[in-house]
Structure formats: C-alpha cells, structure tokens
Amino acid sequence: MMEKAKDGMMLALVKEKPEEGLWLKEVPIPSVGPNDVKIKIHKTAICGTDVHIYQWNQWAKDTIPIGLTAGHEYVGEVVETGEAVQGFKVGDLVSGEGHITCGKCRNCLEGHKENCRDAKGVGVNRNGAFAEYLVIPQSNVWPCTSRIPEELYAIFDPFGNATHATLHYDLIGEDVLVTGAGPIGIMAAAIAKFGGARHIVVTDMNEYRLDLAKKLGATRTVNLKEESLRDVMNEIGMREGFDVGLEMSGAPAGLSDMIRNMKNGGHISLLGLQPKESKVDLEKVIFSGLVLRGIYGRKVWDTWYKMSTMIQAGLDISGIITHRFDIQDYEKGFAAMISGNSGKVILDWTKIHEGGR
Length: 357
Prior knowledge:
Layout lengths: L8 E6 L8 E6 L7 E10 L2 H8 L2 H6 L9 E9 L11 E4 L2 E2 L5 H4 L10 E2 L11 E5 L3 E3 L6 H4 L2 H11 L9 E4 L3 H12 L5 E5 L2 H10 L3 E4 L5 H7 L6 E6 L4 H9 L1 E9 L11 H6 L3 E4 L7 H11 L8 E6 L3 H10 L4 E5 L9
Parallel strand pairs: 10-11, 10-13, 11-12, 13-14, 14-15, 16-17
Antiparallel strand pairs: 1-2, 3-4, 3-8, 3-17, 4-5, 5-9, 6-7
Helix pairs in contact: 5-6, 5-11, 6-7
C-alpha cells in the first residue's frame, strides 16, 4: 500500500539515478512566493520529452540534473496563492504554460514570450508536474472551464505545439502534408481538417499511429515502407505539390521528402527536432521559394485561447488519448508510450494515497 507522504513532503516522479527509469519518492512540497500559485495535480500526460528523461538518452544526460521532478503536461486545482496573486482563488481548475520566461528580454517585452531567450522548462530546467503539487508563477497559469473535459487540459501543452505549428498559415482549401504521426502530428492533422484544408496527408511507418491519424482527420495516410508520397499525390490528383507542410517527425528523411514535394512558394512549419547533422537541400528551398518557419512551444496566450475555442466550436481531439493509468502504474504508462502503439497516455494522481500494490 502506498504510504501517505509526511507533513511538508509529497510524492513525485524523480530522476533519482543516472540510468533508465523514474522513481516515485518523497520530496519537499515547493514553497509559494508572492506571485506564485500552488496547484494540486489531478492528471498528467506523458510527453516524448519525459520518455527521453525516463530512457536517459544523450539529450537527457546533457540536460537533466539528477534529482529533478519530471513532467510538464497537467491539470489540477489551485490550493494556495501568493499574497500578490490576483484573478485566481483556491478551488479553481487550472492548467499552465510550461515555459517560464524571463519577462525582460526584447521578445518578452514585445509580447513574444514563445521566443524568450532565457526560458526555463517546467520538468526540464526546474521541478515539474509529475508530483502531488506544482508551484508556478501566476503569469503561467491558465484558467480551465468545465465546458472542456478535464483530461483534455492535461494535453494542452502538446495540443498547443500542434496548434501553433498548424495555424501559422492559411488552411482553407489548402493541401497539407504532415510528416510524423506522433500525437502532435495527429492533432495537427485534426486541426488542419477543422480549419478547412482539402487534403491532409500524414506520413509515417507506424501503422498503429497512421490508423489513429485517419480517425482524427487525415484524409490519406502513407506508410512509407509500402507507398511513395509521390504516387499518393498522383492518386489524389495533386499536380503542383503541398501548400502547407508540418514537419513533426524530426527525421531528416521526412524533412527532405517534404521539401521535394511542396509547391513553389509553399510554407513549412518545423516542429520536430532534427539531428545536428541533418542536411537541407537549400538549392531546392531557394529555387522553389519555400518559406521555412521554426516553431517552438506555444504563443502565450494566443495559442491557449485558440485551443479552448476550437474545442468549444466542435474540434474533437479526445481520440488522441488512448491509455489511462493510475500514477502507481506509471511504468505501464511509459511502456505504452515507448511501444509506439499509443497516442497520449494519462496518469491519474487523484487516488495516490488510496490503496495500491
């Protein structure tokens, strides 16, 4: 049976050792500053970044300090506010922006927090949301409404990546290529369909996730082990190439395939992290007049507003959540993510002190 945390302590998923895994252990409950909000976590979702931390790959070894509490996708309720906080009260249901920005650099002062030069990531550069409680600045807290299912708020962070990347360009009547059928790519396809795109083609080599993309909005999926993108374009009557490209795979081959199959003057959003040695055919980019745009995080708070209103207007992304586990079974959740046969995985923290193994 899971023991109740001691006074002043809470349970959290911590990178306790420099090896594969996360450990559910007691850590101090974070203190609340004058401008901070303390959130009691209800649900969290597992991100690809969390998987990197769990597996302890080279990026994690170079980035994550031992002892860090992971996690940055969450929903919960306010249980304490700092003395200077206004607009939030105990009992409010909230989520939050995972990039803590400096507020002082040129981009922050201009209202472009997504491009802050000194942003700190919750669950990456500072303790995160895989815990009973999270403390973040009021300026990072997003109010939730009961008109949207609570667990959807737990995936607003990756949904926001998809929204930021997809809505950067006009979609009505356009042909959209999504390379990479991970959860963010699948949600991007759903947004593109909702936004009025004509063809939404998703490429990958994972049949489970391609099937999920079909259910959420892709008009055609392409398993690159079995079909070529060019043949599919001919099949659906595309003559000049894709108008909008959403690169979500982080695979050099995916980016190259996209660049080769864009119309002249086409627009590309780059969200997937490419390896440093990735090569780009700049001659093709130049002669085709392509526009490549790097996408990082979410616009604060424009993206969050768009996510909320799209769902209220009828966008249904609920199907991207394929697995749900109690936090005590977090290892099963990570196994589901690592298998590739999942969409988003939700971890429930609400019964952490009620029974167990």
